[in-house]
Specification:
Blueprint lengths: L1 H25 L8 H25 L5 H24 L4 H24 L2 H25 L12 E4 L4 E8 L11 E5 L3 E5 L5 E6 L4 E6 L7 H7 L8 E6 L7 E11 L4 E12 L5 E2 L4 E5 L4 E2 L7 E8 L2 E6 L23 E6 L5 E6 L4 E7 L2 E6 L6 E6 L38 E3 L5 E6 L12 E5 L5 E8 L2 E9 L6 E4 L5 E4 L4 E7 L40 H4 L7 H9 L1 H4 L13 H13 L8
Antiparallel strand pairs: 1-2, 2-27, 3-4, 4-5, 5-6, 7-8, 8-9, 9-10, 9-11, 9-12, 13-14, 14-15, 15-16, 17-18, 18-19, 19-20, 21-22, 22-23, 23-24, 25-26, 26-27
Length: about 625
Protein backbone atom coordinates (compact mmCIF):
# COMPACT_ATOMS: atom_id res chain seq x y z
CA UNK A 1 0.00 0.00 0.00
CA UNK A 2 2.85 2.40 0.80
CA UNK A 3 4.45 1.74 -2.57
CA UNK A 4 1.13 2.34 -4.34
CA UNK A 5 0.59 5.65 -2.56
CA UNK A 6 4.12 6.74 -3.39
CA UNK A 7 3.54 5.88 -7.05
CA UNK A 8 0.36 7.94 -7.09
CA UNK A 9 2.36 10.88 -5.75
CA UNK A 10 5.62 10.30 -7.58
CA UNK A 11 4.33 10.03 -11.15
CA UNK A 12 2.31 13.30 -11.18
CA UNK A 13 5.16 15.13 -9.43
CA UNK A 14 7.61 13.72 -11.97
CA UNK A 15 5.34 14.88 -14.79
CA UNK A 16 5.12 18.36 -13.28
CA UNK A 17 8.89 18.48 -12.76
CA UNK A 18 9.55 17.46 -16.35
CA UNK A 19 7.01 19.97 -17.54
CA UNK A 20 8.55 22.86 -15.61
CA UNK A 21 12.11 21.88 -16.49
CA UNK A 22 11.33 21.75 -20.20
CA UNK A 23 9.41 25.03 -20.11
CA UNK A 24 12.32 26.71 -18.33
CA UNK A 25 14.93 25.08 -20.56
CA UNK A 26 13.24 25.96 -23.83
CA UNK A 27 11.60 29.26 -22.84
CA UNK A 28 8.13 28.19 -23.92
CA UNK A 29 5.49 30.78 -22.96
CA UNK A 30 2.41 29.30 -21.25
CA UNK A 31 0.27 30.89 -24.00
CA UNK A 32 1.77 28.40 -26.47
CA UNK A 33 0.43 25.40 -24.56
CA UNK A 34 -3.30 25.32 -25.38
CA UNK A 35 -5.46 24.51 -22.37
CA UNK A 36 -7.21 21.64 -24.14
CA UNK A 37 -3.90 19.84 -24.71
CA UNK A 38 -2.93 20.18 -21.05
CA UNK A 39 -6.40 18.99 -19.96
CA UNK A 40 -6.26 15.94 -22.23
CA UNK A 41 -2.76 15.10 -21.01
CA UNK A 42 -3.71 15.40 -17.35
CA UNK A 43 -6.84 13.32 -17.99
CA UNK A 44 -4.80 10.53 -19.57
CA UNK A 45 -2.35 10.59 -16.67
CA UNK A 46 -5.19 10.43 -14.15
CA UNK A 47 -6.76 7.57 -16.10
CA UNK A 48 -3.48 5.69 -15.81
CA UNK A 49 -3.34 6.27 -12.04
CA UNK A 50 -6.90 4.98 -11.61
CA UNK A 51 -5.99 1.90 -13.61
CA UNK A 52 -2.86 1.49 -11.49
CA UNK A 53 -5.00 1.37 -8.35
CA UNK A 54 -7.25 -1.28 -9.84
CA UNK A 55 -4.57 -3.63 -11.15
CA UNK A 56 -1.65 -2.81 -8.87
CA UNK A 57 -2.08 -5.81 -6.59
CA UNK A 58 -1.79 -8.23 -9.51
CA UNK A 59 0.71 -6.34 -11.66
CA UNK A 60 3.03 -5.65 -8.73
CA UNK A 61 3.37 -9.38 -8.13
CA UNK A 62 3.98 -10.22 -11.79
CA UNK A 63 7.43 -11.48 -12.71
CA UNK A 64 7.05 -11.51 -16.47
CA UNK A 65 9.57 -9.14 -18.08
CA UNK A 66 7.26 -8.27 -21.01
CA UNK A 67 4.50 -7.20 -18.65
CA UNK A 68 6.90 -5.00 -16.72
CA UNK A 69 8.19 -3.40 -19.94
CA UNK A 70 4.61 -2.67 -21.04
CA UNK A 71 3.82 -1.12 -17.68
CA UNK A 72 6.89 1.13 -17.81
CA UNK A 73 6.09 2.16 -21.38
CA UNK A 74 2.54 3.13 -20.45
CA UNK A 75 3.78 5.03 -17.39
CA UNK A 76 6.49 6.94 -19.24
CA UNK A 77 4.25 7.72 -22.18
CA UNK A 78 1.27 8.95 -20.20
CA UNK A 79 3.25 10.91 -17.64
CA UNK A 80 5.26 12.75 -20.30
CA UNK A 81 2.39 13.19 -22.76
CA UNK A 82 1.47 16.81 -21.89
CA UNK A 83 5.12 17.85 -22.09
CA UNK A 84 5.78 16.00 -25.32
CA UNK A 85 2.76 17.27 -27.27
CA UNK A 86 2.85 20.77 -25.81
CA UNK A 87 6.46 21.36 -26.71
CA UNK A 88 6.04 19.96 -30.21
CA UNK A 89 4.04 23.13 -30.88
CA UNK A 90 7.31 25.06 -30.96
CA UNK A 91 8.01 23.46 -34.36
CA UNK A 92 11.81 23.43 -34.18
CA UNK A 93 14.04 20.49 -34.98
CA UNK A 94 16.31 21.06 -31.98
CA UNK A 95 13.46 20.93 -29.50
CA UNK A 96 11.85 17.90 -31.07
CA UNK A 97 15.17 16.06 -31.00
CA UNK A 98 15.74 17.01 -27.37
CA UNK A 99 12.26 15.90 -26.36
CA UNK A 100 12.53 12.55 -28.13
CA UNK A 101 15.98 11.92 -26.62
CA UNK A 102 14.73 12.79 -23.14
CA UNK A 103 11.69 10.52 -23.45
CA UNK A 104 13.87 7.62 -24.65
CA UNK A 105 16.26 8.12 -21.72
CA UNK A 106 13.39 8.36 -19.28
CA UNK A 107 11.94 5.12 -20.62
CA UNK A 108 15.25 3.28 -20.35
CA UNK A 109 15.87 4.54 -16.83
CA UNK A 110 12.37 3.60 -15.72
CA UNK A 111 12.83 0.18 -17.29
CA UNK A 112 16.11 -0.37 -15.46
CA UNK A 113 14.66 0.53 -12.08
CA UNK A 114 11.55 -1.57 -12.78
CA UNK A 115 13.68 -4.64 -13.45
CA UNK A 116 16.12 -4.20 -10.59
CA UNK A 117 14.36 -2.00 -8.08
CA UNK A 118 11.51 -2.71 -5.71
CA UNK A 119 9.06 -1.05 -3.37
CA UNK A 120 9.76 2.49 -2.31
CA UNK A 121 12.93 2.81 -4.42
CA UNK A 122 11.09 1.83 -7.56
CA UNK A 123 8.39 4.43 -7.00
CA UNK A 124 10.24 7.43 -5.68
CA UNK A 125 13.17 6.95 -8.07
CA UNK A 126 11.17 8.49 -10.92
CA UNK A 127 11.84 11.94 -9.51
CA UNK A 128 15.59 11.35 -9.37
CA UNK A 129 15.79 9.67 -12.75
CA UNK A 130 14.08 12.51 -14.63
CA UNK A 131 16.90 14.91 -13.77
CA UNK A 132 19.69 12.99 -15.58
CA UNK A 133 17.60 12.89 -18.75
CA UNK A 134 17.29 16.66 -18.76
CA UNK A 135 20.96 17.09 -17.84
CA UNK A 136 22.25 14.77 -20.57
CA UNK A 137 20.14 16.40 -23.30
CA UNK A 138 21.19 19.86 -22.12
CA UNK A 139 24.88 18.91 -22.23
CA UNK A 140 24.50 17.35 -25.68
CA UNK A 141 22.87 20.48 -27.05
CA UNK A 142 25.47 22.72 -25.41
CA UNK A 143 28.21 20.58 -26.97
CA UNK A 144 26.67 21.19 -30.39
CA UNK A 145 26.90 24.94 -29.82
CA UNK A 146 23.11 25.29 -29.85
CA UNK A 147 21.07 27.84 -27.95
CA UNK A 148 17.69 26.16 -27.74
CA UNK A 149 15.25 29.00 -27.23
CA UNK A 150 11.75 29.37 -28.57
CA UNK A 151 12.41 30.57 -32.13
CA UNK A 152 9.37 32.83 -32.25
CA UNK A 153 10.74 34.92 -29.35
CA UNK A 154 14.04 35.62 -31.09
CA UNK A 155 14.49 38.43 -33.59
CA UNK A 156 15.26 37.77 -37.23
CA UNK A 157 18.21 39.68 -38.66
CA UNK A 158 17.39 40.26 -42.31
CA UNK A 159 19.86 41.69 -44.81
CA UNK A 160 18.53 44.00 -47.52
CA UNK A 161 20.25 46.14 -50.13
CA UNK A 162 20.18 49.38 -48.12
CA UNK A 163 19.31 48.43 -44.53
CA UNK A 164 19.82 45.45 -42.28
CA UNK A 165 16.66 44.78 -40.30
CA UNK A 166 15.78 43.42 -36.89
CA UNK A 167 12.36 41.74 -37.04
CA UNK A 168 10.94 40.73 -33.65
CA UNK A 169 7.85 38.49 -33.57
CA UNK A 170 5.56 38.91 -30.55
CA UNK A 171 3.09 36.08 -29.95
CA UNK A 172 0.13 38.03 -28.59
CA UNK A 173 -2.79 35.63 -28.80
CA UNK A 174 -3.59 31.96 -28.55
CA UNK A 175 -5.46 31.62 -31.80
CA UNK A 176 -8.80 29.87 -31.26
CA UNK A 177 -8.91 28.54 -34.83
CA UNK A 178 -7.17 28.99 -38.15
CA UNK A 179 -9.39 31.89 -39.20
CA UNK A 180 -7.26 34.57 -40.80
CA UNK A 181 -8.14 38.25 -41.14
CA UNK A 182 -8.63 41.37 -39.06
CA UNK A 183 -6.63 44.54 -39.29
CA UNK A 184 -4.60 47.15 -37.41
CA UNK A 185 -4.42 50.95 -37.40
CA UNK A 186 -2.03 53.31 -35.64
CA UNK A 187 -3.01 56.37 -33.63
CA UNK A 188 -1.35 58.59 -31.05
CA UNK A 189 2.25 57.72 -30.24
CA UNK A 190 3.12 54.08 -30.85
CA UNK A 191 -0.37 52.78 -30.08
CA UNK A 192 -2.09 50.32 -32.37
CA UNK A 193 -5.74 49.30 -32.41
CA UNK A 194 -6.12 45.71 -33.53
CA UNK A 195 -9.11 43.63 -34.59
CA UNK A 196 -8.88 39.86 -34.97
CA UNK A 197 -10.69 37.94 -37.68
CA UNK A 198 -13.31 36.96 -35.08
CA UNK A 199 -13.99 40.62 -34.21
CA UNK A 200 -12.15 40.88 -30.90
CA UNK A 201 -10.65 44.35 -30.28
CA UNK A 202 -7.30 44.97 -28.57
CA UNK A 203 -5.27 48.04 -27.75
CA UNK A 204 -1.58 47.33 -28.36
CA UNK A 205 1.01 49.57 -26.69
CA UNK A 206 4.19 49.07 -28.71
CA UNK A 207 7.26 49.64 -26.53
CA UNK A 208 10.93 49.29 -27.27
CA UNK A 209 11.21 45.58 -26.51
CA UNK A 210 7.66 44.44 -25.80
CA UNK A 211 4.02 44.90 -26.74
CA UNK A 212 1.45 45.36 -23.97
CA UNK A 213 -2.00 44.18 -25.01
CA UNK A 214 -5.29 45.36 -23.47
CA UNK A 215 -8.54 43.67 -24.44
CA UNK A 216 -11.54 45.93 -25.09
CA UNK A 217 -14.92 44.35 -24.44
CA UNK A 218 -17.16 44.60 -27.50
CA UNK A 219 -19.88 42.65 -29.22
CA UNK A 220 -18.55 41.86 -32.72
CA UNK A 221 -21.17 42.77 -35.37
CA UNK A 222 -20.55 39.71 -37.54
CA UNK A 223 -23.44 37.51 -36.35
CA UNK A 224 -20.70 34.89 -36.22
CA UNK A 225 -22.22 32.60 -33.57
CA UNK A 226 -25.33 32.02 -35.67
CA UNK A 227 -23.12 31.54 -38.71
CA UNK A 228 -21.07 28.81 -37.01
CA UNK A 229 -24.27 27.05 -35.97
CA UNK A 230 -25.83 27.18 -39.42
CA UNK A 231 -22.91 26.81 -41.85
CA UNK A 232 -20.15 24.19 -42.15
CA UNK A 233 -17.83 26.67 -43.94
CA UNK A 234 -15.87 28.36 -41.16
CA UNK A 235 -13.81 30.98 -42.95
CA UNK A 236 -16.31 33.14 -44.82
CA UNK A 237 -17.51 35.43 -41.99
CA UNK A 238 -14.68 37.50 -40.58
CA UNK A 239 -13.31 40.99 -40.06
CA UNK A 240 -11.44 42.38 -43.07
CA UNK A 241 -10.09 45.75 -41.83
CA UNK A 242 -10.12 48.35 -39.08
CA UNK A 243 -9.70 52.14 -39.18
CA UNK A 244 -9.39 54.77 -36.43
CA UNK A 245 -10.75 58.08 -37.68
CA UNK A 246 -8.99 61.32 -36.68
CA UNK A 247 -10.46 62.88 -33.57
CA UNK A 248 -10.45 63.09 -29.78
CA UNK A 249 -9.01 59.98 -28.19
CA UNK A 250 -11.65 59.86 -25.45
CA UNK A 251 -14.39 59.64 -28.06
CA UNK A 252 -12.82 58.15 -31.17
CA UNK A 253 -14.81 56.95 -34.16
CA UNK A 254 -13.72 53.48 -35.28
CA UNK A 255 -14.72 51.81 -38.55
CA UNK A 256 -14.72 48.05 -39.10
CA UNK A 257 -15.27 46.30 -42.41
CA UNK A 258 -16.50 42.75 -42.09
CA UNK A 259 -18.58 40.00 -43.63
CA UNK A 260 -22.02 39.57 -42.07
CA UNK A 261 -24.13 36.43 -41.87
CA UNK A 262 -27.82 36.87 -42.71
CA UNK A 263 -29.29 34.00 -40.73
CA UNK A 264 -32.77 34.42 -42.25
CA UNK A 265 -31.73 34.30 -45.90
CA UNK A 266 -28.66 32.09 -45.21
CA UNK A 267 -26.32 34.38 -47.15
CA UNK A 268 -23.43 36.83 -46.67
CA UNK A 269 -22.87 40.55 -47.25
CA UNK A 270 -19.90 42.85 -46.73
CA UNK A 271 -20.61 45.59 -44.21
CA UNK A 272 -19.02 48.73 -42.84
CA UNK A 273 -19.82 49.23 -39.17
CA UNK A 274 -19.00 52.14 -36.87
CA UNK A 275 -18.68 52.52 -33.10
CA UNK A 276 -17.27 55.06 -30.63
CA UNK A 277 -14.35 54.12 -28.36
CA UNK A 278 -12.49 55.75 -25.53
CA UNK A 279 -8.92 54.90 -26.51
CA UNK A 280 -7.25 56.58 -23.55
CA UNK A 281 -5.75 54.34 -20.87
CA UNK A 282 -6.70 50.72 -21.46
CA UNK A 283 -9.56 51.59 -23.81
CA UNK A 284 -13.31 50.93 -23.69
CA UNK A 285 -16.26 50.88 -26.04
CA UNK A 286 -18.79 53.71 -25.72
CA UNK A 287 -21.76 52.23 -27.57
CA UNK A 288 -22.96 49.56 -29.96
CA UNK A 289 -21.79 48.94 -33.51
CA UNK A 290 -23.94 50.66 -36.14
CA UNK A 291 -24.05 49.43 -39.75
CA UNK A 292 -23.19 52.21 -42.23
CA UNK A 293 -22.96 50.27 -45.49
CA UNK A 294 -23.99 46.84 -46.78
CA UNK A 295 -23.19 45.23 -50.12
CA UNK A 296 -25.90 43.96 -52.41
CA UNK A 297 -27.15 41.46 -53.24
CA UNK A 298 -26.73 39.05 -50.32
CA UNK A 299 -24.74 36.16 -51.79
CA UNK A 300 -24.59 32.44 -51.21
CA UNK A 301 -22.06 31.34 -48.61
CA UNK A 302 -20.34 28.93 -51.01
CA UNK A 303 -18.94 31.73 -53.17
CA UNK A 304 -17.90 34.19 -50.47
CA UNK A 305 -14.12 33.85 -50.70
CA UNK A 306 -12.78 37.01 -52.40
CA UNK A 307 -14.10 39.66 -50.09
CA UNK A 308 -11.82 42.71 -50.37
CA UNK A 309 -12.95 44.93 -47.49
CA UNK A 310 -9.90 47.20 -47.20
CA UNK A 311 -10.42 50.78 -45.98
CA UNK A 312 -8.69 54.03 -46.96
CA UNK A 313 -9.42 57.57 -45.77
CA UNK A 314 -10.09 59.64 -48.89
CA UNK A 315 -10.77 62.90 -47.01
CA UNK A 316 -11.95 64.07 -43.60
CA UNK A 317 -15.50 63.27 -44.62
CA UNK A 318 -15.12 60.30 -46.98
CA UNK A 319 -13.74 56.79 -46.81
CA UNK A 320 -12.98 54.33 -49.60
CA UNK A 321 -13.81 50.63 -49.23
CA UNK A 322 -12.84 47.81 -51.57
CA UNK A 323 -15.56 45.26 -52.35
CA UNK A 324 -14.26 42.04 -53.88
CA UNK A 325 -16.21 39.87 -56.29
CA UNK A 326 -16.74 37.12 -53.69
CA UNK A 327 -16.65 34.87 -56.80
CA UNK A 328 -19.88 36.56 -57.81
CA UNK A 329 -18.93 36.64 -61.49
CA UNK A 330 -19.23 34.91 -64.84
CA UNK A 331 -16.96 32.05 -63.79
CA UNK A 332 -19.72 30.85 -61.44
CA UNK A 333 -22.66 31.44 -63.83
CA UNK A 334 -23.95 34.50 -62.02
CA UNK A 335 -25.52 37.38 -63.90
CA UNK A 336 -22.71 39.81 -63.15
CA UNK A 337 -21.84 43.18 -64.57
CA UNK A 338 -18.91 44.94 -62.94
CA UNK A 339 -20.28 48.37 -63.87
CA UNK A 340 -23.87 47.67 -62.77
CA UNK A 341 -24.61 50.12 -59.89
CA UNK A 342 -27.11 47.63 -58.48
CA UNK A 343 -24.31 45.11 -57.84
CA UNK A 344 -21.73 46.10 -55.22
CA UNK A 345 -19.12 43.48 -56.03
CA UNK A 346 -15.92 44.08 -57.99
CA UNK A 347 -15.77 47.76 -57.07
CA UNK A 348 -14.21 50.37 -54.83
CA UNK A 349 -16.93 52.49 -53.24
CA UNK A 350 -16.77 55.92 -51.62
CA UNK A 351 -18.83 56.37 -48.43
CA UNK A 352 -19.66 59.81 -47.04
CA UNK A 353 -18.94 59.83 -43.30
CA UNK A 354 -21.56 62.50 -42.59
CA UNK A 355 -24.66 61.27 -44.44
CA UNK A 356 -23.40 57.78 -45.39
CA UNK A 357 -24.30 58.16 -49.04
CA UNK A 358 -22.44 55.66 -51.22
CA UNK A 359 -20.99 56.19 -54.68
CA UNK A 360 -18.97 53.96 -57.00
CA UNK A 361 -15.35 55.14 -57.19
CA UNK A 362 -13.95 52.52 -59.62
CA UNK A 363 -14.95 49.21 -61.18
CA UNK A 364 -13.41 46.05 -62.64
CA UNK A 365 -11.70 44.71 -59.50
CA UNK A 366 -11.35 41.09 -58.37
CA UNK A 367 -10.15 41.01 -54.75
CA UNK A 368 -8.51 44.32 -53.71
CA UNK A 369 -6.60 43.55 -50.48
CA UNK A 370 -4.60 46.77 -50.09
CA UNK A 371 -5.61 50.43 -50.23
CA UNK A 372 -3.49 53.53 -49.75
CA UNK A 373 -4.49 57.18 -50.10
CA UNK A 374 -1.27 59.16 -50.28
CA UNK A 375 -1.00 62.86 -51.13
CA UNK A 376 -4.24 62.70 -53.09
CA UNK A 377 -3.23 59.59 -55.04
CA UNK A 378 -5.05 56.29 -54.51
CA UNK A 379 -3.13 52.99 -54.73
CA UNK A 380 -4.68 49.53 -54.53
CA UNK A 381 -3.27 46.02 -54.56
CA UNK A 382 -5.40 43.23 -55.99
CA UNK A 383 -5.32 39.45 -56.19
CA UNK A 384 -5.27 38.07 -59.70
CA UNK A 385 -6.43 34.50 -60.37
CA UNK A 386 -3.54 32.08 -61.06
CA UNK A 387 -0.78 34.67 -61.32
CA UNK A 388 -1.19 38.36 -62.05
CA UNK A 389 -1.38 40.06 -58.63
CA UNK A 390 -1.67 43.77 -59.36
CA UNK A 391 -0.65 47.18 -58.07
CA UNK A 392 -2.98 49.85 -59.47
CA UNK A 393 -3.18 53.62 -59.38
CA UNK A 394 -6.91 54.21 -58.95
CA UNK A 395 -8.64 56.98 -60.86
CA UNK A 396 -12.23 57.89 -60.04
CA UNK A 397 -14.69 56.55 -62.60
CA UNK A 398 -12.20 54.20 -64.28
CA UNK A 399 -12.60 50.49 -65.07
CA UNK A 400 -9.71 48.08 -64.28
CA UNK A 401 -10.54 45.13 -66.48
CA UNK A 402 -11.91 42.31 -64.33
CA UNK A 403 -13.27 39.80 -65.24
CA UNK A 404 -12.50 40.27 -68.93
CA UNK A 405 -8.78 41.04 -68.61
CA UNK A 406 -5.99 39.83 -66.35
CA UNK A 407 -2.34 38.91 -66.67
CA UNK A 408 -3.16 35.73 -64.74
CA UNK A 409 -4.75 32.56 -66.09
CA UNK A 410 -7.57 30.20 -65.18
CA UNK A 411 -6.74 27.95 -62.25
CA UNK A 412 -5.00 24.77 -63.34
CA UNK A 413 -4.84 25.83 -66.99
CA UNK A 414 -2.77 28.06 -69.25
CA UNK A 415 -5.77 29.80 -70.79
CA UNK A 416 -7.57 33.05 -70.15
CA UNK A 417 -9.96 33.37 -67.24
CA UNK A 418 -12.79 34.17 -69.64
CA UNK A 419 -13.00 33.86 -73.41
CA UNK A 420 -10.34 36.54 -73.76
CA UNK A 421 -6.70 35.68 -74.42
CA UNK A 422 -4.51 34.65 -71.52
CA UNK A 423 -1.98 37.15 -70.22
CA UNK A 424 -3.46 40.20 -71.94
CA UNK A 425 -5.08 43.35 -70.62
CA UNK A 426 -6.81 45.06 -73.55
CA UNK A 427 -9.87 46.34 -71.69
CA UNK A 428 -9.75 48.92 -68.91
CA UNK A 429 -6.76 50.58 -67.29
CA UNK A 430 -3.67 48.39 -67.18
CA UNK A 431 -2.05 47.72 -63.80
CA UNK A 432 0.86 49.85 -62.62
CA UNK A 433 2.84 46.71 -61.71
CA UNK A 434 2.17 42.95 -61.78
CA UNK A 435 3.65 40.03 -59.80
CA UNK A 436 3.93 36.76 -61.74
CA UNK A 437 3.80 34.33 -60.05
CA UNK A 438 1.39 35.76 -57.51
CA UNK A 439 2.64 36.74 -54.07
CA UNK A 440 -0.77 36.71 -52.33
CA UNK A 441 -0.62 40.51 -52.18
CA UNK A 442 -2.09 42.32 -49.16
CA UNK A 443 -1.94 45.84 -47.72
CA UNK A 444 0.58 48.56 -48.60
CA UNK A 445 2.01 51.75 -47.09
CA UNK A 446 4.42 54.45 -48.19
CA UNK A 447 7.55 54.91 -46.06
CA UNK A 448 7.46 58.42 -44.60
CA UNK A 449 9.93 58.27 -41.71
CA UNK A 450 13.70 58.69 -41.91
CA UNK A 451 14.58 55.72 -39.70
CA UNK A 452 15.54 53.53 -42.66
CA UNK A 453 18.19 55.14 -44.82
CA UNK A 454 17.27 55.30 -48.47
CA UNK A 455 13.72 53.95 -48.06
CA UNK A 456 11.85 57.21 -47.69
CA UNK A 457 9.11 57.50 -50.31
CA UNK A 458 9.20 53.81 -51.27
CA UNK A 459 6.14 51.55 -51.14
CA UNK A 460 6.06 48.56 -48.77
CA UNK A 461 3.67 45.87 -49.97
CA UNK A 462 2.70 42.85 -47.86
CA UNK A 463 2.10 39.29 -49.02
CA UNK A 464 0.18 36.33 -47.67
CA UNK A 465 0.51 32.60 -48.13
CA UNK A 466 3.82 31.04 -49.10
CA UNK A 467 5.52 34.36 -49.93
CA UNK A 468 5.55 35.53 -46.25
CA UNK A 469 7.38 38.70 -47.20
CA UNK A 470 7.33 42.42 -47.66
CA UNK A 471 8.17 43.87 -51.05
CA UNK A 472 9.86 47.27 -51.28
CA UNK A 473 8.97 49.05 -54.49
CA UNK A 474 10.89 52.06 -55.75
CA UNK A 475 8.54 54.19 -57.87
CA UNK A 476 10.06 56.95 -59.96
CA UNK A 477 8.87 58.78 -63.06
CA UNK A 478 5.53 57.02 -63.14
CA UNK A 479 6.94 53.48 -63.14
CA UNK A 480 8.32 50.83 -60.78
CA UNK A 481 12.12 50.77 -60.91
CA UNK A 482 12.53 47.60 -58.84
CA UNK A 483 10.85 45.29 -56.34
CA UNK A 484 12.96 43.96 -53.45
CA UNK A 485 11.71 41.00 -51.44
CA UNK A 486 12.18 41.18 -47.65
CA UNK A 487 11.53 37.86 -45.91
CA UNK A 488 9.41 38.20 -42.74
CA UNK A 489 8.73 34.45 -42.20
CA UNK A 490 5.13 35.38 -41.33
CA UNK A 491 2.15 36.26 -43.54
CA UNK A 492 1.63 40.02 -43.79
CA UNK A 493 -2.08 40.73 -43.41
CA UNK A 494 -1.69 44.39 -42.42
CA UNK A 495 1.09 46.85 -41.62
CA UNK A 496 1.50 50.39 -40.28
CA UNK A 497 4.36 52.83 -39.68
CA UNK A 498 4.81 54.22 -36.16
CA UNK A 499 5.68 57.82 -35.41
CA UNK A 500 9.32 56.87 -34.76
CA UNK A 501 9.63 55.14 -38.15
CA UNK A 502 9.37 51.51 -37.02
CA UNK A 503 6.95 49.21 -38.84
CA UNK A 504 4.34 47.01 -37.16
CA UNK A 505 3.09 43.97 -39.08
CA UNK A 506 0.02 41.85 -38.24
CA UNK A 507 -0.10 38.25 -39.52
CA UNK A 508 -3.90 37.98 -39.29
CA UNK A 509 -4.00 35.42 -36.47
CA UNK A 510 -1.74 35.72 -33.44
CA UNK A 511 1.62 37.37 -34.15
CA UNK A 512 2.56 41.03 -34.37
CA UNK A 513 6.02 41.86 -35.71
CA UNK A 514 8.06 45.00 -35.06
CA UNK A 515 10.61 45.92 -37.74
CA UNK A 516 13.47 48.26 -36.89
CA UNK A 517 17.03 48.83 -38.12
CA UNK A 518 19.40 46.00 -37.23
CA UNK A 519 23.13 45.89 -36.63
CA UNK A 520 24.89 46.17 -39.95
CA UNK A 521 27.79 44.02 -38.74
CA UNK A 522 28.11 41.18 -41.18
CA UNK A 523 26.87 42.89 -44.33
CA UNK A 524 30.49 43.12 -45.49
CA UNK A 525 30.64 39.30 -45.34
CA UNK A 526 27.85 39.02 -47.89
CA UNK A 527 30.17 40.04 -50.72
CA UNK A 528 31.87 36.63 -50.53
CA UNK A 529 29.69 34.50 -48.22
CA UNK A 530 26.07 33.38 -48.01
CA UNK A 531 24.07 32.57 -44.90
CA UNK A 532 21.81 30.07 -46.58
CA UNK A 533 21.76 28.17 -49.85
CA UNK A 534 24.76 27.59 -52.11
CA UNK A 535 28.25 28.92 -51.27
CA UNK A 536 29.65 31.96 -53.06
CA UNK A 537 33.33 32.90 -53.24
CA UNK A 538 33.56 31.71 -49.64
CA UNK A 539 31.78 28.94 -47.67
CA UNK A 540 28.31 29.27 -46.18
CA UNK A 541 28.49 30.99 -42.78
CA UNK A 542 25.20 29.79 -41.34
CA UNK A 543 25.95 27.84 -38.17
CA UNK A 544 29.68 28.53 -38.40
CA UNK A 545 30.06 29.05 -34.62
CA UNK A 546 30.58 25.57 -33.19
CA UNK A 547 30.91 23.93 -36.61
CA UNK A 548 33.75 21.61 -37.56
CA UNK A 549 36.41 23.52 -39.49
CA UNK A 550 36.29 22.99 -43.27
CA UNK A 551 33.06 20.95 -43.02
CA UNK A 552 30.76 23.00 -45.26
CA UNK A 553 30.14 22.24 -48.92
CA UNK A 554 33.03 24.27 -50.33
CA UNK A 555 36.41 23.83 -52.05
CA UNK A 556 38.67 24.74 -49.11
CA UNK A 557 42.37 25.52 -49.32
CA UNK A 558 44.86 22.83 -48.29
CA UNK A 559 45.76 24.87 -45.22
CA UNK A 560 42.16 25.01 -44.04
CA UNK A 561 41.60 21.30 -44.70
CA UNK A 562 44.60 20.46 -42.49
CA UNK A 563 43.37 22.68 -39.64
CA UNK A 564 41.55 20.45 -37.15
CA UNK A 565 38.92 21.30 -34.55
CA UNK A 566 35.84 23.48 -34.37
CA UNK A 567 35.13 27.14 -34.95
CA UNK A 568 34.97 28.40 -31.38
CA UNK A 569 34.46 32.08 -30.69
CA UNK A 570 38.10 32.44 -29.58
CA UNK A 571 39.38 30.76 -32.73
CA UNK A 572 37.15 32.94 -34.91
CA UNK A 573 38.46 36.01 -33.09
CA UNK A 574 42.06 35.02 -33.84
CA UNK A 575 41.29 34.23 -37.46
CA UNK A 576 39.30 37.40 -38.16
CA UNK A 577 42.02 39.55 -36.63
CA UNK A 578 44.63 38.34 -39.16
CA UNK A 579 43.51 35.48 -41.46
CA UNK A 580 46.80 34.99 -43.32
CA UNK A 581 48.89 35.44 -40.20
CA UNK A 582 46.78 32.96 -38.27
CA UNK A 583 46.63 30.41 -41.09
CA UNK A 584 49.30 30.80 -43.78
CA UNK A 585 48.02 29.46 -47.07
CA UNK A 586 44.36 30.34 -46.48
CA UNK A 587 42.49 31.48 -49.58
CA UNK A 588 40.66 34.20 -47.64
CA UNK A 589 42.00 37.38 -49.23
CA UNK A 590 41.09 39.76 -46.40
CA UNK A 591 43.26 41.98 -44.23
CA UNK A 592 41.25 41.24 -41.11
CA UNK A 593 39.24 43.22 -38.52
CA UNK A 594 41.60 45.08 -36.22
CA UNK A 595 39.07 46.53 -33.74
CA UNK A 596 38.44 43.86 -31.03
CA UNK A 597 35.01 45.30 -30.23
CA UNK A 598 33.96 45.06 -33.86
CA UNK A 599 35.25 41.47 -34.07
CA UNK A 600 33.31 40.54 -30.93
CA UNK A 601 30.13 42.07 -32.36
CA UNK A 602 30.59 40.21 -35.66
CA UNK A 603 31.13 36.90 -33.87
CA UNK A 604 28.01 37.40 -31.74
CA UNK A 605 26.04 38.17 -34.89
CA UNK A 606 27.39 34.98 -36.50
CA UNK A 607 26.44 33.03 -33.37
CA UNK A 608 22.83 34.14 -33.82
CA UNK A 609 22.83 32.47 -37.23
CA UNK A 610 22.67 28.98 -35.74
CA UNK A 611 22.01 25.91 -37.90
CA UNK A 612 18.55 25.32 -36.39
CA UNK A 613 17.45 28.88 -35.68
CA UNK A 614 16.80 30.34 -39.14
CA UNK A 615 17.73 33.74 -37.74
CA UNK A 616 19.78 35.10 -40.66
Amino acid sequence: MVATILKVVAYPVAAAALFLLFVARYSVPPSELPLKIVIVGISLSLAYLVGLFLINSRVAQARHVVLRVVRVGVAAGLVSWPVFVGLLLTQTVVMRGGIVASMVLLFLLLLCQELVGAGVKRSSGVLLLSAPAILIVTLLQSWNGDTAVNARDLPDYVHTSLNDLKITSHVLLESADELDGGGIDVFGKDQVLMATAQGEIYLAHVGKNQIKLDSIATNPPLNRNEYLEQSPIRGAVRVTDLMVLPGERREQRVLMSHLYWNSVQQCVTLRLSEAAFDLSGRGRMLGDWVSRYESAPCIDIDVSIESGGRLGLLSDSSVLMTVGTNNFDVANDYAYDSVDPGVSYGKIVAIDLENYQVGVFSTGHRNPQGLLVDAGQVWATEHGPQGGDELNVIQSGEHYGWPENTYGTAYGRKIGYTEHSAGTHKVGRRPFFVWIPSIGVSHLIRVRGKLFDGWQGDLLVGSLGSANSLFRLRVRGGRTIFSERILTRQPVRDLVELSDGRFVVWNGRDIMQVIEPGEQLISACLGCHAFDGVPRMGPNLKGVVGRQIASADYAYSEAMLNWKGRWTKDRLDDYLRDPKGMLPGTSMDFAGVKDPRERAAIIEALARCGPNQNRC
